[in-house]
Amino acid sequence: MTRSIDDLTERDIAKTIDHSLLRPELDDPFIEDGCRLAAEYHVASVCVRPADVSRARAILDGTDVAVGTVIGFPHGNHRTETKVFEARQALADGATELDMVIQIGALKSGRDADVQADIAAIVEVAHAAGAIVKVIFENAYLTDDEKIRACRLAEAAGADFVKTSTGFAPGGATHADLRLMRANTSPHIGVKAAGGVRTLDALLDVMALGVTRIGATATKVIIDDFRARKAGGPPPGVAAPTVAGPGTEGGY
User: Does domain 5-230 have CATH number 3.40.190.10?
Assistant: First the structure.
């Protein structure tokens, strides 16, 4: 069942959103404007490219928006030592949330111990610095059995979240995958939907499935829509219905 906005506050919605600024062609002004938008709407975090962490931290210092970045992105098949170096640098630059991609090839090869050790190495570095780790599976490439194993390996390694996708694979978050991930992780593990959640209704739908974070580029659209509905008006960009005058029908 879809969550009702009557039971939610704007903060509930905003703090579900990681505002995503990861596309390779984004220039400095776009990143900076995105960070300012994230601060204006009080989202949970921005998720920026590793080279942008310092810039994002400078803009968001003193706000309630965390700075996140990606590790081993987008393919995951880096050596663990490389991921650890990347994580340490991101933390030194000011990141407090790390979204890491698993070693997809290792998982598909049945090398579960290697996958768990890879995740655990990042978790150890992050948790020592008070940061959290979200583990990206890239579900478009995985079978259901592999997704379930990934959930269990991520939890065993101490991860804080499991996450569907990078947004750069052929598919993003699906309801079936989100149900599967929620069913195969303990309640204290967060579930993040990434790829395809672009509207308030889509966000409400995945929240009803147990999702606690989403990766979004449509942050402004989503929150502006929430504000409009809470105020009893039409969604942004939709003309208000004409008040019925004499001789008209179907007015509101």
Answer: no
